[in-house]
Give the backbone structure.
Amino acid sequence: MSPVRSILIALAASLAAVNAFAPMVAPRVASRGQVSMMAKTGPKLKYVDAIKTADLPAPGKAVSAVAGGLDVCIAVAEDGLIYAMGNKAPPTGTPLSGGKVGKKTIKDPQFGTEFDLDTGAVVGKWCPGGFGFVIGKLFEPVGVPTYRVKKGGANIQVEVDVNFKENFESKYWKGILDAQGKTEGGYY
């Protein structure tokens, strides 16, 4: 027997042995009775109430709010303009609402990264303070999302995707679980 043929036979035998221990997966076929609890919907931008106008902080400060199920930071710049952005400062998710607000930036209270109030982009050095000199080397600079803001009656309103939470959860929720915690009814 030639060496090439014996290598091919050994390779085929090893693949068969590996496949013998691989779990058997039945093809997923949608049945007529299967129900999706979370239908995917498209984005829907809408102004929603975030905070009362009376609860606005002084210029140079920020406050957190929940608008449409999203954690947002309402910042009042030194010149009195109002901005809205995501309240989780990268890379660790520290609330931006505890940061110092300048004329065009807000400073992350944990690592000192400054974010542009208009665009959410990083301005200046990434993670310059505290333990940030190590963290900044582990993570690439990334900005925060910004949202349009307006005054609506006695409230400050933020334009957010009101379907964001539902669309996010639709990737993980499959339906009603059986007694073993599975949606397709198969066995372990």
Helices lie at 3-21, 132-138, 164-170. Residues 24-36 have pLDDT under 50 and may be disordered.
